[in-house]
């Protein structure tokens, strides 16, 4: 096989589809991670709470009942900003910190898996990818599947706690918004991609075992005949993998 003539085997269709779904899911996850609309208030309610994301809250002349000074919180601010220092414990309960952690870990894992899948698709570095492709795809599958699990936990925890009365005031005025929906979409897409990558990793591992068996058979036959037989077998298996 020579890299200059592009005679090396390309990535299978299953890998390409799984990687494409992973990239789309990663985009949804990134928008959800940065978006300040996990939950928002109905415009008709004229609530002092407007909307929030994992890292930002937006208020309109909000007065916190338990704060002893008459202070109005106004505008959108980073959750760890000085503006929200006095009410941060109320804005950031333990379950919300768990949601932040799960989404952050999912984002890191998904980005790492995208890098691995990109290496498999473009065949770089060529020698390592051709020799250890099943390991690359297996690690990508593990990270994508873990991202899906983390996002499932994040949306489940947030959806089960966002209407608690000890968190945002008047929870009946609020509704889940598009940033939360994007996290749900990302969790589903990561699950689909994980299934495809798992099936592909198993196929690549089986091809590797068969190739080892063919090499072992070369010791008991003529080298030239065994080499042609090995080449024909690998080409047939690759063609079946692309179908």
From TrEMBL:
Q: Which residues cross the membrane?
A: 21-39, 95-122, 134-158, 178-199
Q: Does the keyword Transmembrane helix apply?
A: yes
Chief location of this protein within or outside the cell: membrane
Coiled-coil blocks: none
Localization annotation: Membrane
Q: Which region is the signal sequence? A: none
Domain of life assignment: Eukaryota
UniProt-listed InterPro entries: PMP22/EMP/MP20/Claudin
A GO CC annotation recorded here is:
septate junction
Give membrane topology per the record: Multi-pass membrane protein
Q: Which UniProt keywords apply?
A: Membrane, Transmembrane, Transmembrane helix
| A biological process from GO | regulation of tube size, open tracheal system
> What's the name of the protein?
Uncharacterized protein
